[in-house]
Design brief:
This protein is an alpha+beta fold. Helices cover 31% and strands 34% of the residues. Helix 1 packs across helix 3 and helix 4 crosses helix 5.
């Protein structure tokens, strides 16, 4: 499989993470406000976890099951967060999108732009035609991102995940490419 390509969007660049990104990932993802809104980021964020996480990315890409990108601002190269396609299945032409943005960059449209760019790439270059997205029900900003990126509400998993001793509802979203619906 070729090297993971860089994806250029209007204001953003999606690029593979490098080892040098680890301290900034630790700082951004280690913010309690970021971790509280995600399904998988631990808090406190363990020392060394960012570096270890980054080392897994090439294997996911080469195996064709996961594609993880750093989200960076094009004008100055500032790292804003991460976005990934998870559970990629070429056989079923589907994947799940997940993302996080550093707190100081919230509310600026970065997650929506990155999600649109990644899904367009996955559809046009990888042939994926079905995308899923999930978010905590108490995270309406993430639900709006998914909807702005063209995913529609598909349901709610009630009391699905235990986070901080509390069972949380998880909202489900999905997008099906028109080509998948063609007879």
């Amino acid at each position: 499989m070729p090297l993971q390509p860089v994806i250029e969007a209007r204001h953003l660049r999606l690029r593979p993470f490098i080892a040098g990104d680890a301290p900034e990932v630790q700082r951004l993802a280690g913010d309690r406000r970021v971790a509280e809104m995600t399904l998988a980021i631990p808090h406190p964020y363990p020392d060394g976890a960012a570096a270890a996480w980054i080392t897994t990315h090439p294997f996911g890409w080469l195996a064709g099951r996961e594609i993880t990108y750093a989200i960076e601002r094009r004008r100055d190269g500032v790292l804003l967060g991460a976005i990934a396609l998870l559970n990629v299945s070429a056989a079923h032409a589907h994947a799940e999108v997940g993302y996080w943005i550093g707190h100081e960059h919230w509310g600026q449209g970065h997650a929506t732009e990155a999600t649109r760019a990644l899904l367009d790439f996955a559809e046009n270059e990888l042939g994926l035609t079905r995308f899923a997205g999930r978010c905590l029900a108490r995270n309406p900003a993430s639900a709006r991102v998914l909807q702005k990126a063209g995913l529609r509400p598909e349901g709610c998993l009630v009391c699905h995940l235990q986070i901080g001793g509390v069972y949380e509802d998880v909202l489900l979203f999905g997008r099906v490419a028109p080509s998948r619906l063609a007879p």
